[in-house]
Amino acid sequence: MKSAIVLASAGLALAAPPPTRVVRAADATSCTVTAYASISAAVASCTAITLSNIAVPAGSGIDLSKLKQGTTVTFAGKTTFGYKAADYDMITVGGKDITITQASGAVIDGNGGAWWDGQGSNGGKTKPDHFFVVDDVTGTSTIENLHIQNWPTHCFQISGCDGLTIKNLVLDNSAGDAANSASSGLPAAHNTDGFDISSSTNIILSGTTVKNQDDCVAVTSGTGITVTGMTCSGGHGLSIGSVGGKSDNTVENVSFLSSSVTNSQNGCRIKSNSGTTGTISGITYKDITLSGLTTYGIDIQQDYLNGGATGSPTNGVKISNVTFNNVHGTMSKGKDYYILCGSGSCSGFTYTKVAITGGSGDSCNYGSCP
Ligand SMILES: *[C@@H]1O[C@H](CO)[C@@H](O)[C@H](O)[C@H]1NC(C)=O
Ligand SMILES: *[C@@H]1O[C@H](CO)[C@@H](O)[C@H](O)[C@H]1NC(C)=O
Q: Is 154 tagged catalytic?
């Protein structure tokens, strides 16, 4: 039997919900939660959960990591977060055959401006390193239609997932492009990756807009990942890596398709870490439009160390079978093409209909620049 039950707790948000309002597992499937403190009871007993205008207390996160199989969670109204200078996950999702979606007009606002100080995860205030952690999601699962804005540093961390489709999201951190009183003239938001994907298989990410200040998508490990229909601006582009020196250092069969990258540092980028080992293979960039880029149009480099380029590539990470097909557009400055491979560690790069213009000083030490 289905019943709709409203879970709400009066008084302080941190107070435990009154026992009389705890839902009986036997008959509750559909639950509307209006108080943060009632989320855990809903997760334990409901399979259709609406989170309505949830105000998350400072230092706390929304824990959806143990959803029952087949659960749908719908964010409704405005989801807001308090501020605490600490590193914690602000939304955590896990489960099998789950759907995370939102009601029309809903907004998830991470209150990022409270943390932004121009330093991201490199220093300054202690910040939640990931806003939306999707861990061990399996079966046939979907995250769709969410409108997320103002996250503190990285937004999505997708790890240990298999069989997940993410579609039609809007991630808007454009408010962090401007300096604020704590950022010494720098853009206030920093290290604000849209999607960091690792150790995951059978992932589709599609139809999503990302406005941020770092990688639009970064795949550091995983196989069978398709990224398509992305609209990326303000950040660092569509990236593999940096690969190497982590617990999982294999990236295989990753495709970036039918996407645009504008007003960003880079377009298509593959990075590996100096002095490490790993494999990057079967990478496709197809139908990618670039404009207003400032650093590299196409970039493959094997010289990363501690997050920066050393200029001295190493060959422990093998990069093979990389295809660029119909990748075109313009730089406003920087290099159209930059390939810096280690000795013998790159093979099988194919360029078809690749035309990037407006940059200067192209440099390719494996094959010739397109
Ligand atoms: C990558 O794709 C190739 C060609 O379709 C396939 O043979 C290989 O098994 C795939 N690798 C993985 C790890 O799925
Ligand atoms: C190269 O990678 C593509 C996927 O990008 C795959 O379809 C193809 O089978 C791979 N070829 C080889 C020789 O590994």
A: no
SS (H, E, C) 231-242: EEECCCCEEEEE
Atom of ligand 2 nearest to the CA of 254: 5
Dist. CA 279 → ligand 1 center (Å)? 13
- Distance CA(108)–CA(78), nearest Å, equals 6
Whose CA is closest to atom 1 on ligand 1? 253
**Tens of pLDDT, residues 171-214:** 999 999 999 999 999 999 999 999 999 999 999 999 999 999 99
Whether 236 is a known active-site residue: answer yes
> What was the pLDDT predicted at 28?
46
What percent of the chain has pLDDT above 70?
92
What is the Å distance from ligand 2's center to 207 Cα? 24
**Which residues' Cβ are closer than 6 Å to ligand 2?**
253, 255, 282, 284, 321, 323
DSSP E strand stretches across 186-265: 195-198, 200-211, 217-219, 222-233, 238-243, 250-262
The answer to whether residues 304 and 272 touch, using CB atoms and an 8 Å cutoff, is yes
**What CA–CA distance (Å, rounded) separates 104 from 146?**
9
Task: Name the strand (E) or helix (H) holding 350.
Answer: strand 346-357
DSSP 3-state of 50: strand
What's the mean pLDDT in 331-359? 98
Burial environment of residue 306 by CB neighbours within 10 A (0 to 12, 13 to 18, 19 or more): exposed
Determine the Cα–Cα distance for residues 160 and 302; give it in Å rounded to an integer: 25
Yes or no: say if 228 and 199 are a contact pair by the CB < 8 Å rule. no
Evaluate: CB of 284 within 6 angstroms of ligand 1.
no
Using alpha carbons, select from 211, 208, 209 the residue that is nearest to residue 192.
211
* Residue 8 main-chain phi, psi, to 5 deg: -150, 145
Measure Cα distances from 91 to 13, 51, 184 in Å: 17, 12, 29
Which of 318, 199, 208, 210 lies closest to 270 in space, CA to CA? Answer: 318
